[in-house]
Amino acid sequence: MTDFFEGIDPIRYEGPGSENDLAFRHYNPDEVVMGKPMKDHLRFAVAYWHSFAWEGGDPFGGQTFLRPWHPQDSMETARIKADAAFEMFRILGVPFFCWHDADIRPEGENFAESKARLDEMIDYFGVKMEDTGVGLLWGTANMFSHRRWMSGAATNPDPDVFAYAGATVKACLDATHRLGGQNYVLWGGREGYETLLNTDLKRERQQAGRFLQMVVDYKERIGFQGTILIEPKPQEPSKHQYDYDVATVYGFLRDFDLTDHVKLNIEQGHAILAGHSFEHELALAASLGVLGSIDMNRNDYQSGWDTDQFPNNTPEVALAYYEILKAGGFTTGGTNFDAKLRRQSLDPEDLIAAHVGGMDVCAAGLKAAAAMLEDGKLEALRAERYAGWDSEDAQALLHHATLEQCEECVIERDIRPEPRSGKQERLENLVNRYL
């Protein structure tokens, strides 16, 4: 057991007027939004790695956090870490958490020892999950931190590393299945390249495709009912990564006949690094039928790297949940806080406050998004802009016409198109009414 969070009571909803730093102002789990409780829309999860495994380092400095489970090099400290984690889940009232294998067990001398340690911790987690009612949103494998992964996992030029990656994912997918996980995520932390001078792009992409096919085949053989997810990321630590953004990953899935088997876990910070907005990536994934789950965080827009900060921008979050709600909401997916404290935020209370604030921002964004969708004005104005395509002639033009027929139509009807306003400012003003 641990007394890491001693003196911190479970977080309660106190309403917008509350001055309590450790209370929800907007997140009322049982409040009904668009026909179901807010908690069932948001499906919050805590990231085990940032909240408990991260030690507070950055590219210019080492550990700043001193936790009771440091150093993270024994099964005893792994259990202490788990005790603290499940205590925090209880305090926050979150329904889910997420993990990498390396977060929850110390590395062994070889694969067999690492797997045995993982299995032992999965047993420990199983008891705690049964006691608390907290579920597993998803599990994944850390195939980027250890030096063996320095040239990638599935895309590595060494077939021994490819085999080690396959064994690692099998162990993690088995563990996720045992815990009733609702998804399994493949995050290609180093599936990319530093220079083309030593890289065979075609070969590495084929390796990645074959590896994912193996994962899907194994999922079906063991009867795992969850969703396989890929998380797009454009860069950092690699110069270029093969899962750059939603469009890139979708093309990859099409090439390897996996669009019916794999969906995407989309992160706000990664969308920004790819030069997109979060809502763009969500809307595109939804339109392609591959929207699965999200990692909710933000980047510092003055930094060109993945700073993984807790969300605090309600307008941005509202637009994200608008796309999610419009697509029908989550099924197996949810809102994972892939976010970490700043390395100067040392106290246990800081970890609770960060999640409370993030959950409130998401709740406020969700309510604004639901209000926009239920009101219907934004969708009505969008439909009005494309209304010309609803006629039979326009549909015939789109689906059956040739270029010769386009020319004939323009000449016969003496078509002289006049531009029409896109009304962007009016729409931006409309959105702001709900925030």
Automatic annotation (TrEMBL):
<feature type="active site">
    <location>
        <position position="100"/>
    </location>
</feature>
<keyword id="KW-0119">Carbohydrate metabolism</keyword>
<feature type="binding site">
    <location>
        <position position="270"/>
    </location>
    <ligand>
        <name>Mg(2+) 2</name>
    </ligand>
</feature>
<feature type="binding site">
    <location>
        <position position="295"/>
    </location>
    <ligand>
        <name>Mg(2+) 1</name>
    </ligand>
</feature>
<feature type="binding site">
    <location>
        <position position="308"/>
    </location>
    <ligand>
        <name>Mg(2+) 2</name>
    </ligand>
</feature>
<feature type="binding site">
    <location>
        <position position="231"/>
    </location>
    <ligand>
        <name>Mg(2+) 1</name>
    </ligand>
</feature>
<feature type="binding site">
    <location>
        <position position="267"/>
    </location>
    <ligand>
        <name>Mg(2+) 2</name>
    </ligand>
</feature>
<comment type="subunit">
    <text>Homotetramer.</text>
</comment>
<dbReference type="GO" id="GO:0009045">
    <property type="term" value="F:xylose isomerase activity"/>
</dbReference>
<keyword id="KW-0963">Cytoplasm</keyword>
<feature type="binding site">
    <location>
        <position position="306"/>
    </location>
    <ligand>
        <name>Mg(2+) 2</name>
    </ligand>
</feature>
<feature type="binding site">
    <location>
        <position position="338"/>
    </location>
    <ligand>
        <name>Mg(2+) 1</name>
    </ligand>
</feature>
<dbReference type="InterPro" id="IPR036237">
    <property type="entry name" value="Xyl_isomerase-like_sf"/>
</dbReference>
<dbReference type="GO" id="GO:0005737">
    <property type="term" value="C:cytoplasm"/>
</dbReference>
<dbReference type="InterPro" id="IPR013452">
    <property type="entry name" value="Xylose_isom_bac"/>
</dbReference>
<dbReference type="GO" id="GO:0000287">
    <property type="term" value="F:magnesium ion binding"/>
</dbReference>
<feature type="binding site">
    <location>
        <position position="267"/>
    </location>
    <ligand>
        <name>Mg(2+) 1</name>
    </ligand>
</feature>
<protein>
    <recommendedName>
        <fullName>Xylose isomerase</fullName>
        <ecNumber>5.3.1.5</ecNumber>
    </recommendedName>
</protein>
<feature type="active site">
    <location>
        <position position="103"/>
    </location>
</feature>
<comment type="similarity">
    <text>Belongs to the xylose isomerase family.</text>
</comment>
<dbReference type="GO" id="GO:0042732">
    <property type="term" value="P:D-xylose metabolic process"/>
</dbReference>
<keyword id="KW-0460">Magnesium</keyword>
<dbReference type="InterPro" id="IPR001998">
    <property type="entry name" value="Xylose_isomerase"/>
</dbReference>
<keyword id="KW-0479">Metal-binding</keyword>
<keyword id="KW-0859">Xylose metabolism</keyword>
<keyword id="KW-0413">Isomerase</keyword>
